Amino acid sequence: MLLLSTLVLLGxxxxxxxxxxxxxxxxxxxxxxxLTVHVLWHAPIYAWLLLVSAWARRMAFLWxxxxxxxxxxxxxxxxxxxxxxAVLGYRFSGPEAFSFTAPG
Length: 104
Hints:
72% of the residues lie in helices and 0% in strands. By secondary structure, the chain is an all-alpha fold.
């Protein structure tokens, strides 16, 4: 919003300096946090979906969903663990749900 407001002010011939003087250090840190954590957190998911949709001619959803499902099933059969499913769960749920403690 800050960048969009700056562009609107510059486009209308007004100075954007008054807008930027109102921005505090905490707002800039929040903006940095939102850009780095919340936007980049889901980037691997979007990259996987983009790769599969470019590669698959038909049934792109199945090609996107079956390999992670197969990896999870094979891990459960071979090692009797759910680490891959836990990583996917954390990635889909968002950075707020990430816990630094070991799952009990």
